[in-house]
Amino acid sequence: MKQRFVSNKTGSNNRNFIVSIIVFFIIFGCFSFGISTFSDKASEQEKQTLETAVNRGIAHCYAIEGAYPESLRYLEEHYGLIYDEDRFFIDYQILGSNIMPDVTIIDKEDRQ
């Protein structure tokens, strides 16, 4: 006797499980990509903010004292520059007494 109305649910269950796993990994991948992109943009913004703060401190020192700061430490001690030294390296090169110093900021955690 044939069983007309009895179906084999095992194949259907396996297919649903596989589809669920695939959808989960797609959603997880999109979420990870979004977090990574947001983190990269926030890091770049933080570096840009530090660069602006250093340049403003240099200009402020020149406006008040009539000379550019002789070192980065001078900016930290007299003009309140604060930054994460474990994260950023600031190369501060004095070019002359009346020439604005050359400042290069390097993100130590940059993955590029």
Automatic annotation (TrEMBL):
Q: Which UniProt keywords apply?
A: Membrane, Transmembrane, Transmembrane helix
Question: Transmembrane residues, as ranges?
Answer: 17-38
Full protein name: Uncharacterized protein
